[in-house]
């Protein structure tokens, strides 16, 4: 049933994402449904890319096939079911269950107004093809390694910059107050918004990724410090390793600065859109602060994340300040100053 599909998609979201499940609740109507379905489809692509038990060749094949499902056309149901049957995961988890329920997600996608279907299809397809292209690197050696900062940004564009562009297009379609001129400004900042959030996630998973043989931190960062991309050497050079980590989080912050201006460019009357952007932005800055504050725990492999209480404080404070650009600027500057003080201590 139509209503059941949406409810089950909402249940999937609650299981596969903590942050997005929080901030999407502020949206309403077609924009809410469009971003819910868009996120789940992006998450499916992420799951295909991230499964540690799938060899690179299979990931490339799956991602290319997944991309070929967009935009959905006649016979989409049979093709999605065939795709699901062709994919197998080593372990059952919330993400793999979501992949198995892909036909339901597609039904909800096609229940959206045509314009939203076109927007989502364009960017999910671009994301999946980009992921497939980067998976080719895994066949070159035992560790996934990006060579330069430019390559890192290019990767982040595919996995997150495309999301920024997609959100902007959905917002613009859903809000007449977002004029063509405003949309142009948002588009100019949206890629960096997505990249800033992705770099925060990469920072958070820096050491867990290394331990499983993956490294999204550019090899050039390690070479500049005179060490090789070797886990044992990294462990024995903690101070050097934290300099590399600081460089990564500084790059994340540089992109998040654009995310603030993106949010301030959204008309004040679009309160829900502003909050949708403010919550993950401020959570990302708070995460970067905590990562640099607890760097010894980070080096020892402990998972670091902001608390539920900190999340609530961000939601409340930004809700009070949401229509005041000056108040939001001051709040952001305060957090940025706190981050910089932590980085200086490293």
Describe this structure in words.
The protein has helices spanning 2-16, 19-23, 29-50, 56-67, 76-86, 94-100, 102-110, 114-135, 149-174, 180-204, 206-211, 219-224, 231-235, 238-265, 271-293, 295-299, 308-321, 325-345; strands spanning 144-145, 214-215. The protein has 346 residues and is an all-alpha fold. It has a domain at 1-116. It has a two-stranded parallel sheet with strand order 1-2. The longest helix is centred in the C-terminal third of the chain and has 28 residues, at 238-265. The model has no long low-confidence stretch (mean pLDDT 91).
Could you outline the blueprint of secondary structure elements for this entry?
Layout: H1 2-16, H2 19-23, H3 29-50, H4 56-67, H5 76-86, H6 94-100, H7 102-110, H8 114-135, E1 144-145, H9 149-174, H10 180-204, H11 206-211, E2 214-215, H12 219-224, H13 231-235, H14 238-265, H15 271-293, H16 295-299, H17 308-321, H18 325-345
Parallel strand pairs: 1-2
Helix pairs in contact: 1-3, 1-7, 3-6, 3-7, 3-8, 3-9, 4-8, 5-7, 8-9, 9-10, 10-14, 10-15, 14-15, 14-18, 15-17, 15-18
Can you tag this structure with a few keywords?
346 residues; mainly alpha; two-stranded parallel sheet; 18 helices; globular
What's a concise summary of this model?
The chain has 346 residues and is mainly α. It is 76% helix and 1% strand.
Task: Give the DSSP E fraction (strand runs of 2 or more residues).
Answer: under 5%
Number-wise, the strands total 2
The helix/strand series, from N terminus to C terminus, equals HHHHHHHHEHHHEHHHHHHH
> What do the pLDDT scores average to?
91
Strand order of the largest sheet: 1-2
- The radius of gyration over CA amounts to 20 Å
Oligomer type = single chain
The amount of helix comes to over 70%
Distance between the termini: 55 Å
Number of helices: 18
Can you tell me the overall shape? globular
Which residue ranges are poorly predicted, with pLDDT under 50 across at least 5 consecutive positions? Answer: none
Could you describe the largest sheet, including whether it forms a barrel? 2 strands, parallel
> Which structural class should the secondary elements be placed in?
mainly alpha
């Amino acid at each position: 049933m139509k209503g059941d599909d949406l409810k089950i998609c909402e249940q999937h979201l609650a299981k596969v994402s903590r942050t997005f499940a929080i901030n999407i609740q502020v949206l309403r109507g077609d924009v809410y449904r469009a971003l819910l379905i868009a996120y789940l489809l992006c998450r499916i692509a992420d799951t295909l890319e991230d499964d540690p038990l799938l060899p690179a060749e299979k990931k490339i094949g799956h991602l290319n096939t997944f991309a070929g499902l967009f935009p959905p056309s006649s016979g989409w149901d049979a093709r999605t079911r065939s795709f699901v049957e062709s994919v197998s995961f080593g372990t059952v988890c919330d993400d793999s269950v979501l992949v198995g329920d892909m036909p339901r997600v597609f039904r909800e996608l096609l229940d959206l107004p045509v314009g939203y279907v076109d927007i989502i299809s364009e960017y999910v397809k671009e994301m999946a093809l980009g992921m497939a292209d980067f998976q080719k690197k895994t066949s070159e050696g035992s560790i996934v390694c990006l060579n330069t900062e430019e390559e890192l940004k290019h990767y982040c564009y595919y996995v997150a910059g495309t999301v920024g562009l997609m959100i902007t297009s959905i917002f613009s379609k859903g809000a007449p107050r977002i004029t063509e001129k405003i949309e142009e400004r948002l588009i100019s900042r949206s890629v960096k918004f997505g990249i800033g959030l992705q770099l925060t996630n990469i920072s958070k998973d820096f050491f867990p990724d290394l331990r499983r043989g993956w490294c999204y931190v550019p090899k050039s960062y390690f070479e500049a410090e005179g060490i090789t991309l070797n886990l044992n050497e990294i462990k024995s050079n903690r101070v050097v390793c934290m300099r590399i980590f600081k460089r990564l989080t500084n790059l994340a912050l540089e992109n998040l600065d654009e995310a603030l201006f993106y949010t301030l460019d959204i008309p004040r009357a679009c309160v829900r859109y502003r909050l949708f952007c403010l919550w993950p932005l401020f959570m990302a800055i708070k995460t970067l602060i905590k990562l640099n504050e607890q760097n010894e725990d980070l080096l020892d492999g402990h998972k670091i994340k902001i608390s539920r209480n900190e999340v609530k404080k961000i939601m409340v404070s930004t809700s009070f300040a949401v229509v005041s650009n000056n108040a939001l600027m001051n709040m952001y500057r305060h957090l940025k100053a706190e981050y910089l003080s932590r980085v200086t201590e490293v």
